[in-house]
C-alpha cells in the first residue's frame, strides 16, 4: 500500500504526475501545478524562503476526506471534490 506524507506533493511535469519532496517542489517546480498525494486536491507549498524554516503542504480548498489534514479529516478517505486529474 502506498503511504503518503505531509512532506511530499505531486507535481505535474510534461503531463505526468510525479511525487517529490516539498523543498524540491518549491525550488525546482515553482510554477508547476501541484496536488495532494492523498486526495489529489490542488495544493501550495507554504513556508519561509530564508533560514531553516519548515515547509508544509496547504490545500487551496479544505476537504474533509483527506487523511493529511488531521484537523478536518472525518476518518473516511476520499478524493477531493475538485481533484486534479
Characterization of this structure:
The mean pLDDT is 89. It is globular, with a radius of gyration of 13 Å. It is 8% helix and 26% strand. The chain contains one helix and five strands; from the N terminus they run E-E-H-E-E-E. The two termini are 21 Å apart. It has one domain (1-85). A hairpin with a 2-residue loop joins strand 1 and strand 2. The protein is mainly β and 85 residues long. The strands form two sheets. It has a three-stranded antiparallel β-sheet with strand order 2-1-3. Strands 4-5 form a two-stranded antiparallel ribbon. The chain has one helix at residues 22-28, and strands spanning 8-13, 16-21, 34-35, 43-46, 56-59.
Key words describing this protein structure:
85 residues; globular; 8% helix; mainly beta; 5 strands; two-stranded antiparallel ribbon
Element layout with pairings:
Layout lengths: L7 E6 L2 E6 H7 L5 E2 L7 E4 L9 E4 L26
Antiparallel strand pairs: 1-2, 1-3, 4-5
Order of helices and strands: EEHEEE
Number of structurally distinct domains: 1
**Strand arrangement across the biggest beta sheet:** 2-1-3
Shape: globular
Q: From the structure provided, what is the oligomeric state, counting identical versus distinct chains?
A: single chain
Q: Which structural class is indicated by helix and strand composition?
A: mainly beta
Radius of gyration computed on alpha carbons: 13 Å
Largest sheet: 3 strands, antiparallel
Q: Approximately how much beta-strand content do the residues carry? A: 25-35%
Question: In total, how many beta strands?
Answer: 5
Number of helices: 1
Distance between the termini: 21 Å
- Model regions low in confidence, pLDDT < 50 over at least 5 residues: none
Mean pLDDT: 89
Residues in helices, as a percent range: under 10%
